[in-house]
Specification:
single chain, alpha/beta, Aspartate Aminotransferase, domain 1, Aspartate Aminotransferase, domain 2, 40% helix
Length: 453
């Protein structure tokens, strides 16, 4: 007598009893039983016990090649010796001084030395706080209220930025946001400079904010020619151009996407990598625009013109130590170039699997970020933006309802994808990449056996 083979979901669940038990406990204390929406999936998430280099291990003893890399924050991988040493040494000296430290000065100097537009630096804690502060700085500088953002571009969960993140773009990405709050948020079509000109001509716009490499962490790539035109249009009108490089800063290139693409904004939002694995963010930019954050011994300035920005955790010594150690290595080694090369190898390997198995899908990406989609690759992937609006819908859809199944199939093969994409780090190896491609071939084979492909 033959027994039927377990499904991907059944095999996943049966092999992770400790994770299942932890999830049942977590559901009693946390909404969804998790601290981040992206970590929740059916039947339950797995729980990590430790991580090192390019790998992590769950509580049930399974090892995974990690393609999340700390949500993109770990350019050097988990537990890099220099970063761990810096954190350990600083912990002995104190966790929080409630005062300035030399570390924050060195940290700011490293950022200024790498990012083209970073004349001044103000540290924050999260990406959402950083983009929110950047817009406030722009509004104070220009004396205008409206901001322009783009369809599919994600700038955190601040009320003003939940517009047009997901299709249908007319509906905010979150409940609980009053329509009145979004009246000053104008939505532009990606890569459409004519539409941007129309909005700038018709409204008192303080700032244009976008992810320069492309919306949703480069899911929908930006046209380099569009970025250059956007820089020209905002400069002519005195509109502050803000690049959200929370994801791409120090990942796309040492100086971020702006350095690689040759377009310098007025303000930049940074995060993730600058903290070396600890929570951190920074608004950086032109000195005259950033001057609104400066304290001056003038009561009139302090009360009516200054942008107050207190923050308990701004440039706290522990994070500054990790940030300094990380950015020194990013600046002085081939970490960024290595991660880029490995990612290109992975993309080519995944595409070879699609071809070999005759599956209608594709992998694509820039720098050390990779994505996957269903069907034939659209022209935008190859730099042809003539059908950009249609292409964007396909790219945002990714693998649709098969996304969680693909992820679980890959987990069974020892690889943790960030849904159907991810980030590589300098800690990954060519062997890790090749093993991931082999795992992908087996994972797609599982989907085919279940009749899903």
């Amino acid at each position: 007598m033959t027994t039927s083979r377990p499904t991907i979901e059944q095999e996943y669940a049966a092999a992770r009893p400790k994770s299942k038990a932890l999830y049942e406990r977590a559901r009693q204390s946390m909404p969804s039983g998790a601290a981040h929406d992206g970590r929740v999936f059916s039947p339950f998430p797995f729980y990590v016990e430790r991580a090192d280099g390019a790998r992590k291990w769950d509580v049930d003893g399974h090892a995974y090649i990690d393609c999340w890399s700390g949500h993109g924050a770990l350019m050097l991988g988990h537990n890099h010796p220099a970063v761990v040493r810096a954190i350990t040494e600083q912990a002995k000296k104190g966790l929080h001084y409630s005062a300035c430290s030399e570390l924050e000065v060195r940290w700011a100097e490293l950022i200024r030395g790498c990012v083209p537009g970073a004349e001044r630096v103000r540290f924050t804690l999260t990406g959402t706080e950083t983009t929110s502060l950047a817009v406030r700085v722009a509004r104070a500088f220009t004396g205008r209220d409206d901001i322009v953002k783009f369809e599919s571009h994600f700038h955190g969960v601040h009320d003003a930025f939940v517009a047009a993140v997901k299709d249908p773009f007319e509906i905010p990405a979150s409940a609980g946001v009053p329509a009145s709050t979004l009246k000053t948020t104008l939505v532009a079509r990606c890569n459409d400079i004519a539409h941007v000109r129309e909005l700038l001509d018709e409204h008192p716009v303080a700032a244009v904010i976008l992810e320069p490499a492309g919306g949703r962490s480069m899911t929908v790539p930006s046209n380099p020619a569009f970025l250059k035109a956007l820089r020209e249009e905002t400069t002519k009108r005195g509109v502050v151009l803000i690049f959200d490089e929370v994801v791409t800063g120090f990942r796309y290139a040492r100086g971020g996407a702006q350095a690689h693409l040759g377009v310098t904004p007025d303000l930049t939002a940074l995060g993730k990598i600058i903290g070396g694995g600890l929570p951190a963010g920074a608004v950086v930019g032109r000195a005259d625009v950033m001057d609104g954050l400066a304290w001056k011994p003038d009561p009139e300035w302090q009360r009516f013109r200054m942008i107050p920005h207190p923050g308990t955790w701004n440039a706290m010594p522990m994070t500054a130590a990790a940030g300094v150690a990380t950015l020194r290595l990013v600046r002085d080694t081939d970490a960024v170039d290595r991660a880029r090369a490995l990612t290109q190898r992975l993309i080519e390997g995944f595409n070879a699997v699609y071809d070999e198995l005759d599956v209608a899908g594709f992998a694509y990406g820039r720098a050390s970020i990779f994505k996957m989609g269903r069907g034939e690759p659209p022209p935008m992937v190859f730099g042809d933006f003539s059908t950009a609006r249609e292409d964007a819908r396909q790219l945002v859809a990714g693998w649709g309802d098969l996304t969680p199944v693909i992820r679980k199939a890959m987990l069974l093969e020892g690889v943790d994808l960030m849904r159907t994409g991810g980030f590589l780090s300098a800690a990954h190896s060519e062997e890790d990449v090749d093993a991931s491609c082999q795992a992908f071939e087996r994972a797609l084979g599982r989907l085919r056996r279940e009749g899903l492909l």
